[in-house]
Structures are given as structure tokens and as C-alpha cells.
Design brief:
CATH architecture of the largest domain in chain A: 3-Layer(aba) Sandwich
Shape of chain A: elongated
CATH superfamily of the largest domain in chain A: P-loop containing nucleotide triphosphate hydrolases
Shape of chain B: elongated
Number of helices of chain A: 15
Strand content of chain B: 35-45%
Largest interface: A-B, 22 and 27 residues
Strand order of the largest sheet of chain A: 2-3-4-1-5
Mean pLDDT of chain B: 93
Distance between the termini of chain A: 60 Å
Helix content of chain B: 10-25%
Number of domains of chain B: 3
Largest sheet of chain A: 5 strands, parallel
Strand content of chain A: 5-15%
Structural class of chain B: alpha+beta
Oligomer: heterodimer
Helix content of chain A: 55-70%
CATH superfamily of the largest domain in chain B: DNA Polymerase III, subunit A, domain 2
Number of domains of chain A: 2
Low-confidence stretches of chain A: none
Number of helices of chain B: 6
Number of strands of chain B: 25
């Protein structure tokens, strides 16, 4: 049986109440950070709509014919569109073939569900070719768009969907679920969840990597930079080994929390007490404008890394290190 | 599941259903065939989620069961085995073991219950039609279907059943083909369905000349045709076909009667020097004379003149020559009757004599 995650209950209830009133929209835009389980939610909803046993608010039964096909990934009325290779764009031909399939009658006579995951990887042509169908799809069809960055979708796509948002979740319920799923101690999980910015599935993924160790090193390097002048080129080489995107993501969290610490006097960046002492010193040494300037510079470089142009990663890392040094030794 | 079958009995079924299996598949199970062994009968099913084809073969079965196995590989193996070879099929665990003489093949399988088989619950109509009639009906109309048009309802063939009359209509917005035939049915209310292009093409491949009656079943979402041992099922296009009756011009008093072959040949010659993109031809009608003029961007020109029977006003109309040729080459009679009213109205092309086929071609401004 496909059940939604505990932090998705309220969204599920909302959709179910709309379904009962027969007011389900023809196009749904699911938004939220990566790792919040949007694909899982869309699977739960699709399975529920295609399931033959209709029990009001309940999840799909997982036993009837359509459910067995769904689990095998061969459900003919559930069409998934994703990039052919990871990180690539969804092309116009894929959307055209999806539209062609939507205009055919459904196999079981019920719903036809199209899922575009993630919708922001559609290129401009693909997104434009979807517009007419997205506005007025054939009867009994539901188009689900999944997006981690809804702001990067075409306005014309966004305005044609009803949006269902999944905010970051780091409440007790989520921690409890993480604890049961991973059998790890809660304090550790809490830190992971903070690093994952409230995306529980991402936190689980972090568990298996060296991310935590990398981040400790990163913090230590930041502190080291405040004491001695290190060689930015060598340091950038080292950081690149941790993954450029991940480094920028983490630096964003660090500078954000440092600014928060400066403003409110509360907040925690890491569980390591030694590092916390040093960080506190740094926060005292710098003023708020400098901390925000660091944050802005990191954000700029992060966007450059994740953007459409293939910029030199080493250069972007060196840039942020030199910037940090220039702030410190002004 | 266990049975033994002669290569010659299995091969026709394999070759028939394999046409549906697409080479590039997003779903692994669709590159497999569903093999079902029942009491004294083996059936093979292939599907691409749009068209499903099943073929049965009578054969003794030692133990029943069903499984899916790679379509292409199974066909290649059977084809490569010697004539009159006896193939033993046996499930061992999650594999299928094929043996024939001293050859052994172990094929991977996927569970049969994961195969997206089309199940039809309720028919809204059924009728019987002779195989050659259905083939003629499709032959005469299918060419006019649209291809990848955004008006998705044009990318297929309309079947309209009313009483014992079955009508097929295809149009791409520039020309239209219509054909009527008589079927055995007790359907009273009018039923309209649109069969997708792919289904029509697959069906044309399966149909042969023959007077045997075949059963056509229509349900809300599918059309199913039983052709002897073959069962063809296609999804339908979910949409409403445009009101085609309005675009068919009435038969006027002044029409052209021309020798079909003569006209077709001269238009073919004229088309060589027409604009490759627009294919325009200027048709000039005078008393008992039809002239066809073409020219292309390189200023090359062609002029053809044939004798026809015509007594109306002088007239000059532009057409896409390939639409005219398409219609003419699907007319079987010796003479054709063409009605042209004025340069902004569609022309009606009919076979000579009583007929149930109509072709409409829209004019173009040259």
C-alpha cells in the first residue's frame, strides 16, 4: 500500500476532500524542496485515482489489478515523463508524445494521469508545447507537475496549474519518522535535517555519505582562514573534492546562521563545541553587513554553478575564498 | 507451463504479433510477448499501449500457465531453427527453457500479471463485415488522415455506424475522403468513434482479400476486431470529429467527366514542374477541355491538356496537385466525375456511376 509521508498528511487530506467534492483540478503543481518526497506523493495520488477499490480517504489498496500494474511500473494510464538522462532537459518530442497519449482513450476507462518530474527541467520549447493541453486537457485526465524551483517555470505554465506546496519539515513528527526509518540517534538526525534544509529524504541520503565530515572540515577551513592566510588555489582544489554545489549549499547555511546568530544571539551551526566557540568569535569580529555580503556573494556563485552556463568551478570557489579573506583582513 | 510445438505452427503467430512491438521501448515489459498456454490453445499477445494484437494457435498443452518473454529474441530463435523443428517450452523458476533437438535456450521472463492487457468490460456496439469490404473501406480513406496534427481528432479515421451503414471518414483539413459500406448490425442509434492512425495502419497490414465475415466490437474506449485466430484491439481517440457533412459540396449540374487514367497521368507529369513545397496546379476548364498548368520558382513550366466532357462555364481553379492525385489513385472506375463550382469552393471527386466513395479537395489560391 502506498502511503504518504507523515509530513504530507495535510496536503493529502486537502486533495482527498477535493476529490470527494469532485473538484479535483485538471493540473496540479506540486512544489517543495528536493527530498521532501514530491514524487512519492504524486505516486500515492496516482495509485489512489487508478485503484479499483474506492475507499473514501484511504490510500490505494495495492492488491487490485491496476495497483499491481502500478507497482510494476506498467500501469498504462499513468504516464511519467522525465529527462532521458539525469541532469538533462525534457525535450519537446517527449511532451508531444505525452500529449498524443493523453488524447487516446484510457485503458481502464478511468483517469489518465501524466506526471512531469521535474517540470522545471522542461526546456522552453517543451514547456510551450504543453500549454494548450495544460490549459484544457481531455476529460478524465490529470496532469501533475513536480517542481523544486517553481520560480524557474514559465509563468504561463504556473498560472495554468493549481499549486500544492510542501514546506520544509523539521518538526518532531518528521524526526520521529526519520528515527524509526534509519535507526539513528535523534541529535545526529536533527543536525542532518538542518543541513538538508528540512528535506527528510535528503537527510537520509546524507547519512550514507561523508557530507558531515566534509562540512566539519569546511568549517575548520573557514576558521583557519581567519587566523592564517591560506593559499586560496590549493584550498579551492580541496573543496572541489567535496562537490562544488554541496560546498556552496553548505556555505549558504553557515553564513545564514552566522547572520542569525549576530542578530538574535541564538542559533546553532554545528554540534561540535570547539568549532562553535571559534564561530562565535568570528561572529563577534564581523558586523552584520559583512555577514550578509558573504551570504550574497555565496548565493551569486551558487547560482552561477547551478545555472545553465558551464563556468569554471575552481574559479568560483577561489572567488568565494578570496572574498572571505578580503572581508576578514579589511 | 509446459508444451511442445512445431516451428511452423509458432512462427506465423510470432511474426504477426511482433509488428506491434516497438524497437525502442520505455517500459521493458512492452518489448516482451505475453505467452498464454490454455487447454489445447496457445496465445501470443503484443502491445505498445495503443494497439494490442493477440494470435492463437491450436496446440496440445501439457500444463497451463502464462508468462512474458522477450519478443524479438523469441522470434529470432524460432526463425533460425531448422524447418519442421519441434520446440519444447518449459518454465524453470523465473526463466523459460526452450529446447529443440540439441539446441537449448534460456530466456528471461517478467511476470504475466504485470502485463498491461486490455480488458473490455462492456461493448456499446458490434457488427459483422466481410474482410474484403473492411479492407476496401480503409484502403479508400486512410490516406487522407492527418499526421501529427495539433487537432488530435484528425490524426485518425472516423467510423460512423448507423443502422446497417458503416461510414469511414478521414480528413487533414485540406482534403477529405469518405466511404460507405453495408454491415450486418442491429445498431439503431448513431455511433461515432475515431481510430488512431497507428491502429488503422496496423489493421491494414492484417487485412486480406476474403469474403469471410469478421466481428467488430466497439466499447467506450476501444475497438476490437476478431480476424480468425487474430484479435486486434486499439484504443480510440478521445475527442469529437468535426462535422464533415458541411464540407462536402452538393453535386452540381455541371461536372467534368474525365478518363481517370488519362487525367492521373497528365497531372503526374504536370506535377513534376510544380513548386516542390506548395505543389500548386492551375486547372482551367473550357468546353470539353481541361488544362493543367504548373510552374516553379525556377520559371520552368508545364502545360497539359486533355479532352473531357464538360459544358459549363469557363473556370480557373488552383489545387494542390498531390491531393488530386491521391484521390484519383484511389478511384477504381474508368471514368471520374469532378464537380467544380468556383475558384473558392472545394471540388468533389467521385467515381463514375453509383458509388459510395467521395473525395473532397479544397482549392488553393495561386
Amino acid at each position: 500500500m502506498l502511503k504518504v509521508f507523515p509530513w504530507q498528511e495535510s496536503q493529502w487530506r486537502e486533495i482527498m476532500s477535493r476529490l470527494q467534492q469532485d473538484r479535483l483540478p485538471h493540473a496540479l503543481l506540486l512544489t517543495g524542496p528536493a527530498g521532501i518526497g514530491l514524487t512519492h506523493f504524486s505516486n500515492c495520488l496516482s495509485a489512489k485515482l487508478l485503484c479499483q477499490r474506492t475507499v473514501a480517504n484511504d490510500f490505494a489498496c495495492g492488491e487490485c489489478g491496476p495497483c499491481i500494474l502500478f507497482q510494476a511500473g506498467t500501469q498504462p494510464d499513468h504516464i511519467r515523463v522525465e529527462a532521458e538522462e539525469k541532469g538533462k532537459q525534457i525535450k519537446i518530442d517527449q511532451i508531444r508524445s505525452l500529449i498524443g497519449t493523453l488524447y487516446l482513450s484510457s485503458q481502464a476507462g478511468g483517469y489518465k494521469i501524466a506526471v512531469i518530474d521535474p517540470a522545471d527541467s522542461m526546456n522552453r520549447n517543451a514547456a510551450n508545447s504543453l500549454l494548450k493541453t495544460l490549459e484544457e486537457p481531455p476529460a478524465d485526465s490529470l496532469i501533475i507537475l513536480i517542481s523544486h524551483q517553481p520560480s524557474s517555470l514559465l509563468v504561463t505554465v504556473r498560472s495554468r496549474c493549481q499549486r500544492l506546496n510542501f514546506p520544509p519539515s523539521n518538526d518532531a513528527l518528521t524526526l520521529n519518522w526519520l528515527e524509526q526509518t534509519t535507526q539513528t540517534e535523534p541529535a545526529h538526525l536533527h543536525e542532518l535535517l538542518v543541513i538538508a534544509q528540512g528535506a527528510p529524504l535528503k537527510a537520509i541520503a546524507l547519512l550514507d555519505t561523508d557530507t558531515l565530515a566534509h562540512q566539519q572540515t569546511l568549517l575548520q577551513d573557514l576558521i583557519e582562514l581567519s587566523k592564517n592566510k591560506l593559499d586560496p588555489i590549493k584550498l579551492a582544489e580541496k573543496w572541489q573534492g567535496f562537490g562544488t554545489v554541496e560546498v556552496f549549499q553548505y556555505l549558504l547555511i553557515v553564513f545564514f546562521n552566522m547572520a542569525k546568530l549576530k542578530l538574535t544571539g541564538t542559533g546553532k551551526i554545528t554540534n561540535n563545541p570547539d568549532i562553535t566557540v571559534y564561530l562565535q568569535e568570528l561572529v563577534n569580529r564581523l558586523d552584520l553587513a559583512q555577514l550578509f555580503a558573504c551570504y550574497d556573494q555565496t548565493l551569486k556563485n551558487y547560482q552561477a554553478v547551478t545555472g545553465p552556463f558551464n563556468l569554471n568551478k575552481q574559479g568560483l570557489l577561489e572567488d568565494i575564498i578570496i572574498y572571505w579573506q578580503s572581508i576578514l583582513y579589511k | 507451463m509446459k508444451f511442445s510445438i512445431l516451428r511452423e505452427d509458432l512462427l506465423p503467430a510470432l511474426q504477426t504479433v511482433n509488428g506491434v512491438v516497438e524497437r525502442r521501448q520505455t517500459l521493458p515489459i512492452l518489448s516482451n510477448l505475453l505467452l498464454n498456454a490454455r487447454q489445447d490453445c496457445i496465445s501470443l499477445t503484443a502491445s505498445d499501449m495503443e494497439v494490442e494484437l493477440t494470435m492463437e494457435t491450436e496446440n496440445a498443452v501439457d500444463s497451463i500457465g502464462e508468462v512474458t518473454l522477450p519478443a524479438r529474441k523469441l522470434l529470432d530463435i524460432c526463425r533460425a531453427l531448422p524447418d519442421e523443428a519441434r520446440i519444447n517450452v518449459n518454465i524453470v523458476g523465473d526463466r523459460v527453457l526452450l529446447t529443440s533437438g540439441k539446441s537449448r535456450f534460456t530466456l528471461s521472463t517478467l511476470p504475466a500479471q504485470e502485463y498491461p492487457l486490455i480488458e473490455i468490460n462492456e461493448n456499446i456496439a458490434d457488427f459483422k463485415i466481410s474482410q474484403s469490404n473492411l479492407k476496401a473501406l480503409l484502403d479508400r480513406t486512410a490516406f487522407a488522415m492527418a499526421q501529427q496534427d495539433v487537432r488530435y481528432y484528425l490524426n485518425g479515421l472516423l467510423f460512423e455506424l448507423e443502422g446497417d451503414r458503416l461510414r469511414a471518414v478521414a480528413t487533414d483539413g485540406h482534403r477529405l475522403a469518405l466511404c460507405d459500406t453495408v454491415v450486418k448490425s442491429d445498431q439503431q442509434t448513431l455511433i461515432q468513434i475515431i481510430i488512431p492512425r497507428k491502429g488503422v495502419m496496423e489493421l491494414l497490414r492484417l487485412l486480406h482479400e476474403g469474403d469471410d465475415d469478421i466481428l467488430v466490437q466497439i466499447s467506450k474506449n476501444h475497438i476490437r476486431i476478431k480476424l480468425g485466430l487474430i484479435q486486434f484491439t486499439s484504443k480510440l481517440i478521445d475527442g469529437k470529429f468535426p462535422d464533415y457533412v458541411k464540407v462536402i459540396p452538393a453535386e452540381a449540374e455541371n461536372y467534368v467527366i474525365a478518363d481517370k487514367e488519362l487525367l492521373r497521368q497528365s497531372l503526374t507529369r504536370a506535377s513534376i514542374l510544380s513548386n516542390e513545397k506548395y505543389k500548386g496546379v492551375r486547372i482551367i476548364l473550357e468546353k470539353d477541355k481541361l488544362r493543367a498548368l504548373t510552374h516553379n520558382p525556377e520559371q520552368e513550366e508545364a502545360e497539359e491538356e486533355i479532352e473531357v466532357s464538360y459544358s459549363g462555364e469557363e473556370l480557373e481553379i488552383g489545387f494542390n496537385v498531390s491531393y488530386l492525385l491521391d484521390a484519383l489513385s484511389h478511384i477504381k472506375t474508368e471514368k471520374v466525375q469532378i464537380t467544380m463550382i468556383d475558384p473558392s469552393s472545394s471540388c468533389l471527386i467521385l467515381p463514375d456511376g453509383p458509388s459510395k466513395t467521395k473525395y473532397v479537395v479544397m482549392p488553393m489560391r495561386l
